[in-house]
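User: Assemble these into one structure.

Assistant: Restating your components, then the assembled model:
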Amino acid sequence: MTFTVNGRKFEADPRPGQCLRNFLRDLGCFGVKKGCDAGDCGACTVHVDGAPVHSCLMPAARVHGRAITTVEGLADPDGALHPMQQSFLDNQGFQCGFCTAGMLMTATALDQSHRAALDWAMKGNLCRCTGYGSIRSAIEGKNPVSAANGQGACGRNAPAPAGPDIVTGRARYTMDTAVDGLLHMKILQSPHASARILAIDTREALAFPGVVAVLTHADAPARHFSTARHENPLEDVDDTLVLDPIIRFAGQRVAAVVAETEAAADAARSLIAVDYELKPAIFDPEEAMAPGAPVIHDKPAVSRIANAGRNIVAELHSEVGDVEAGLAEADVVHEGGFETQRVQHAHLETHGCIGWIDDDSRLVIRTSSQTPFLTRDALAALYDRPRESVRVFCERIGGGFGGKQEMLTEDIVALAVLRTGRPVKLELSRAEQFTLTTTRHPMRVSMKVGAKRDGTLTAISMRMLSNTGAYGNHGPGVLFHGAGEAVALYRCPNKKIDGYAVYTNVIPAGAFRGYGLSQTNFAIESAMDEVARSLGMDPFAFRRKNVVVPGDAMIAVDHGPHDVEFGSYGLDQCLDMVERSLADCARYPDLSEDWLVGRGMAAGMIDTIPPGGHHAESRIALVEGGGYELAFGTAEFGNGTTTVHAQIAAEILGSDPGRIRILQSDTDITSHDTGAYGSSGTVVAGAATQAAAEALAGEIRTAAAHRLGAAPEECVIGPDAVTAPNGRILLSDLTAGGGRLEAIGQTHGSPRSVAFNVQGFEVAVHRRYGVIRILRSIHAADAGAVINPRQCRGQIEGGVAQALGAALWEQVLIDGAGRVANGTFRGYHMPAMCDLPETEVHFADTYDSIGPMGAKSMSESPYNPVAAALANAIRDATGLRLRTTPFLADAIFEELVTASSSQMSRPEETESEPAEL
Amino acid sequence: MDLTSIEAVERPEGDAAIAARMGCFGDGDAWLAGGTWLFSEPQPQLRRLIDLAAAGWPPISADAEGLSIAATCTIAELDRFEAPGTWQASHLIGKCCRAFLASFKIWNVATVGGNLCMSLPAGPMISLTTALDGLCEILGPSGSSRKVPALDFVHGPLENALEPGEILRGVYIPAASLMRPAAFRRISLSPMGRTGALVIGTRAPDGGFDLTVTGATRRPVRVAFSYAPGLTALRAMIDVAIPPDLWHDDIHGRPEWRRHMVMQFAAEIVAELSEGAA
């Protein structure tokens, strides 16, 4: 078969049944991405004879004689970028960048009619990071925000260093490499939710041509571990085996086939014969913790499971003050239950890794992880190897959102590498991402909130029931965090919290942006809205009366000492900004009288750093030639911290962020990094870079002073030279002849500060259809001093977008047998461009005394107040209090029709009138 | 995605070769039209794909009698079709194309026949061809041909009138239907998501109304009126035509909501088309 790719002629034959995407990747076009492999996400978009197609759906055999263009062929051969590439660069129309090639290939194929209906034209391209605002700007060719506003490197919209590679398809993600002799792994998953494996017959599979190994529980280490990754492994429960003879959820690993080709691994997997003894399964967490329920983990106390006999992985009971007395003295009490569902992270790059043995006999894992160092430690422990004999590193990562703060593929790939001695790859399919990884913890949260007539809170009582699924993963941490800042936000003398994280026979829940706070925030902020309403009080005024201010103790579960301080406080500004913006009178002439309009808000607080120690090390050097080399541990998955690190170092060294060469996320280059979770990439790892840069600046000044005969404090470091009153020396002269000035910075994540978010919505609800339309979305954030406003805004827009997906549509459904029922993007509706409003973002003007360069964390927290703010706006519009996410029209229309007709003075429905959506 | 169990892709050229291949169609064989569904899910039971790309059927043609759409006509080709001005209902073509969950990029590959043969409730080519009284032509293994009204082609989700070895050759839409005034309503749980309910109404020259319900029901349903019905009669007739178990129930909408929306839309459509007649 002959065809051209990016103008180059090829003569090659695909495998029968091979799709064009994989055929192109075999030819080295790694810019063509796999997001879903099912035609839903558009990351694999290429042009065939000029027409855009999803290459994962196109039979490769059909491109005979045709001309294919991939992202690698968009730029001129001389390297000049296509205008659309330049626009994506100028507008930074990406975060992790995994969707960017597909976005570009679609955007460059739009005609006038497509451009006139851009939301619709782009619905076949999913982005999980940005919320589409920057992508829309890029496609529309808006004038980008100037990168050069302000003085110095911090506070500027410095561009992401990886930008040029991302828009040209050169950026390398985990799977974008060709490895000689690579073996492919496929996982056999259990069809049963609860079973014991009596026997596995692997003989037929092993005999299949190309199969190298079939791994079962007999091959796996006997050591239990937790897939969750934390600095202190003792925070998590040891309840997991690499391969376990006990099946606790449908989808659990049963065996792994390792073969020369994916096709052989696929075929052999179906030849494994498993004899299961079925056991009773339990899916409801309340039933699971009832006495007499089947015990899911019959494990000893050393596992750290709180109460294995009652399926309780962790529990929490606390009371400060006297809640009964507080409720008794209240003039109004709101009591009600709230429920949040199971949602998927849906980062476009699925979990996966490639492992091999290097020339020094070390186990090397190239992986898609937020925690390469902790994964290295876990692998060393699991396989009884010295830490030095394991290397874990990450290339660019295609999104994480907490899902990659977990060891979900590296353990079994390591087993296969150690067993076969050969390179092994495991890349999860999108279906496996839905059935073999994790979700957010579904929670039921019951609230009782009391207040006096003047609005003063008298009592907050909360019961949390968190469904952690079949394994503990992040169950304890999520429970405790959920009981934290959402409650501590309020000054109230009486608080009581009871919480349970409970095992059930469903897919495990794990870490996910917000880490428990989004679930409790929905309940608490909804309840606060009800209390304010019954008092006839404005929700902003009610918050101002009751939220903590500097000087107040921040109390959730006890009065005990902690390391959280008000390093800065901008909640007051956030409330003011959202209130002001919501109060602007907007008019919507296109809304018929079927649409009911309302406004709502919710607030959130978050500690800027996870508790219990969070460590980072940065190394920075002035190298030969006068350039800087900065090495740090934290990984880049679209969070933009790489840019921030370069900005921090540049600010301190009087340089430009673009002149700092960066090495990162590799256990070979720094000693330790706890990981990129809890929004710590700036506040912890960035602080290490700040310390390293300051130390290096000191060394440079000392060296220059010595050479110039000046005092170090007289020396000013510039981009190219150090200047003193009596002279000037080039940086390159300081390192001439192979010299190198180096410094190391370390941080440990304590003390910690608090960041704030306030979300406001104006919505319209169609009283006959049950459809919700967001008219305005306003978000104010107190992120301290914002180091990169464009990137920080992107984090907020993306967080609001992801939370809107969860509030309005997304849900991982579990069928009656405990299986995931909608494990595809066409079944699991994550928002496309057409689904999301533009979010207006405001920043509080604060400077944090704890965070690096005055900054605070701002990745997770924008998610948290979204569902409650939306529910409060819907309540305002319709009178209906929604207590369960997502707010799908088919679930709410009956109540809505009833509530809104009683809300309205209009006596009858006008059903015969035409209405357009 | 790669279909790793496929051993061969065949590409019969022309009607005779396709008829010959139909004669030996067996287990593990699948017809490949656009491939946009086939390549979107694992197909471990398949061994051979028989590609219809070389069938050579003209994608779309129109004459005074009506519109012929080949099964292999892509959605993009259909959307580009420019209808004569007298075909008032032709705005349904663009609207039904836009009722796909899939983006315009998929239109470049996906086919009208593929959508019909998938026979999913939300298939918008089913909505279009049933609402406009389309006639499906089915080819049999012996070179035979039979015709089935589009309304009878889809029997339920993933079920249709095709017998093993048969293929859909195309759909014919009579000009008389295309000349009627038509109204279109659609809703999904997300703004441009998969159809939850789609109702098309056409008005006959004699004043009658034909309402065609798709998306909301397990198979297409026609509710015909010889007059403009009042609200009560309209609802009663729909409930007679669509018994409770015929409302579709899946993640794209609960049956109660689908019924509610069909009732809303039916009333809106009758009002709209009556207005046009006044």
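The radius of gyration of chain B is 19 Å.
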